[in-house]
Amino acid sequence: MSFVADLFNAAGRVAVITGGGTGLGFWMSEAWVKNGGKVYITGRREETLKDAVAKLNGISEGSAFYVHGDVSVQADVDKLARELSAREDAIDVLVNNAGTYKSDTKAPDALLPTFDSSNWASLFTLHAWAPAAVTSALVPLLVKAAKKGEGRGSVILIGSAGADFWFSSWPANGYTVTKVAEAALTKTLANKLIDHGVRVNTVNPGIFPTQVHDASASRAKEHADFLRRSIPMKRDGGADDISAIFLFLATKASAYVTGQEIYVDGGWTLVANGCSDANA
């Protein structure tokens, strides 16, 4: 094995990825399996999880498993911890990836949206509480892994580049605020766990073609115009883009990195807040 391959090696390591059945979560799961690791994925839709696990095991038999549940519900977080503790002695990587987007309703003549409290509560629960609760539930397994060294015991939060935006046409909504809270959580968890060898970092993606960011054929021209005007690299992010930074943070390659936010956004955050319009 080459020096570089050894740095990013996942062989014999176990990852847990919430929301791992689709989008970024599936791409990271796929990268982990291709790199020799074992992965457990979670999600609310069991059929989606079954399909994803079948695809992953088609790459490497016996490398992927799922635990059905909703990480925004305490009982399901407890179930996840119980099942993983029964199956594994240690967890090398935890990716808090589960997320959603719900915008607040804004009347055409209103200065601000209505800021629906139930919408904000569900977003805060999923984006801020759930990563904290899942990390807390799995931390004994993460600490056991960290004691083995070589970058094991890594926690990765999937945030959003949108947490850093405030330009005039960027929507004021609970999603952005909860992603800011998630970034703050990274610093808190990293500080609390550093003495135990567990590392905590955040990845902030920009625009990726997932269910959250629909780039369907019906919106192809509008989306292409948006990319040309707004993203310096003039394209969406793809599977390789998120997989590369995931493998870095999940392996020995980042053993000296904790408490950090890394943006994977094609340069969007370099220019967006200097624009008076999102498409300028």
Automatic annotation (TrEMBL):
Disulfide bond among the record's keywords?
Answer: no
Return the SUPFAM superfamilies for the record.
Answer: NAD(P)-binding Rossmann-fold domains
Query: What's in the keyword line of the UniProt record?
Result: NADP, Oxidoreductase
Q: Does the keyword Lipid biosynthesis apply?
A: no
Alphabetized Pfam families for the sequence? adh_short_C2 (PF13561)
A GO MF label = oxidoreductase activity
Family, per entry: Belongs to the short-chain dehydrogenases/reductases (SDR) family.
Protein name as it appears in the record: NAD(P)-binding protein
What is the species listed in this Swiss-Prot or TrEMBL entry?
Dentipellis fragilis
